[in-house]
Design a protein that fits this description.
This protein is α/β, with parallel strands linked by helices. It has helices at about 10-25, 30-40, 40-65, 70-75, 80-90, 105-115, 135-145, 150-160, 165-190, 190-200, 205-215, 245, 255-270, 270-280, 285-295, 300-310, 330-344, and strands at about 5, 220-225, 230-235, 235-240, 285, 315-320, 320-325. It has a 4-stranded mixed β-sheet, covered by helices on one side. Strands 5-7-6 form a 3-stranded antiparallel β-sheet. A hairpin with a 3-residue loop joins β3 (about 230-235) and β4 (about 235-240).
């Protein structure tokens, strides 16, 4: 087994996610819409799973340490992409939480530049990547000018990349003072989480393990509550949402098979997901290739692929440093057989 299953939450990942959720809270309508877009039973998911996450956020907020509002706004009020960048930087460099002294502005800046690049090739390690040299402000501005991103994000990245070590020190201080609040919230959530933790410990859902073996060999896989309905694959760390194994039925019993058919029908009823499968019928493609073909952002493609992978319609393989998606034709056949058995 070329990955390691961890049986405790990563407090850094949880805390950064909690702080982001407080800074940019989602209204119920937006959550329901997101569930609908992903092809899940929105009302059921909201009541059964998202309510647990809302309680987690409330408990964390109750125990939160006082912090500089301007710092909180800088890190967590500029969209998901910037928060994701910070999350990868800090979780892939856990030694930074102890001391940032050995790290230079240039190293953080170059690592940031690598993560921002929409590289076709996926490095096995963050440090194996081809880091861009961004030693001067002129180089930073040129790099950001060429970046495919919204102008507001580019300006925010420019402010961060001018003195990244100083900003990372502020982020580390913010996380360190609030990790105890996260730990207290998890203790108070213990009883509600028992069935989900038990399912995770039994390794009921193999999907993230399958992805990790291909995309992040040797990675540690952590459970996550704040990302309870997602699977996140970085370089040395992966995060398996506690609720993921409950979102997509496995189809063993008659009722579960019906639920699985319904879930797959919902996935196919979405035009973008159906178009993706039609493209993959022609040939295997990697994320950026699909994004260009579909005229969607890479992050949007990733959201769609997360659902299609959970439904079993899509598989992945790694070749020449790229992660390719392909159509699981036997699963499509299985789906059609189930529909025939039920209706004909």
């Amino acid at each position: 087994m070329n990955y390691k299953i961890m049986y405790q939450f990563d407090p850094v990942f949880e805390t950064i996610g909690l702080l982001h959720s407080i800074a940019e809270p989602m209204e119920k309508e937006a959550v329901i819409q997101q569930f609908n877009e992903l092809g899940f039973d929105a009302e059921r998911c909201y009541k059964k799973y998202y309510k647990i996450m809302e309680r987690y956020i409330r408990l964390f907020k109750k125990h939160m340490a006082p912090c500089e509002i301007s710092h909180q706004e800088f890190f967590f009020c500029h969209g998901d992409e910037f928060c994701l960048l910070l999350t990868v930087l800090i979780t892939e460099n856990p030694q930074w939480m102890d001391s940032l002294d050995p790290v230079s502005d240039e190293e953080i800046r170059s690592m940031t530049g690598f993560l921002l690049q929409e590289n076709e090739a996926q490095a096995i390690s963050l440090r194996d990547g081809n880091w861009p040299q961004l030693d001067t402000e002129k180089e930073i501005i040129k790099f950001l000018s060429d970046l495919q991103a919204e102008e507001s994000l580019k300006w925010h990245l420019l402010e961060f990349m001018r003195c990244p070590k100083d900003w990372m020190e502020k982020l580390i201080e913010l996380l360190a003072t609030n990790i105890p609040a996260c730990e207290k919230a998890l203790v108070e959530m213990n009883k509600a989480l028992e069935p989900f933790v038990r399912s995770y410990e039994n390794n009921a859902d193999k999907q993230v393990s399958q992805i990790a073996k291909i995309c992040a060999p040797g990675a540690c896989i952590y459970p996550t509550l704040i990302g309870g309905m997602s699977q996140q694959i970085y370089y040395s760390r992966c995060y398996q949402g506690l609720f993921m194994s409950f979102l997509t039925p496995k189809g063993s019993s008659g009722d579960e098979r019906k639920e699985l058919v319904i879930t797959r029908m919902k996935a196919l009823s979405d035009r973008s997901k159906l178009d993706i499968l039609c493209e993959l019928k022609k040939s295997r493609q990697y994320n950026l290739e699909l994004a260009e073909t579909m005229k969607l952002s890479p992050s949007t493609i990733s959201h769609h692929m997360n659902v299609l992978f959970a439904c079993g319609f899509v598989g992945i393989e790694k070749k020449d440093g790229r992660v390719y998606y392909y159509l699981q034709e036997e699963v499509v056949e299985e789906y059609l057989d189930h529909v025939r058995q039920m209706l004909l």
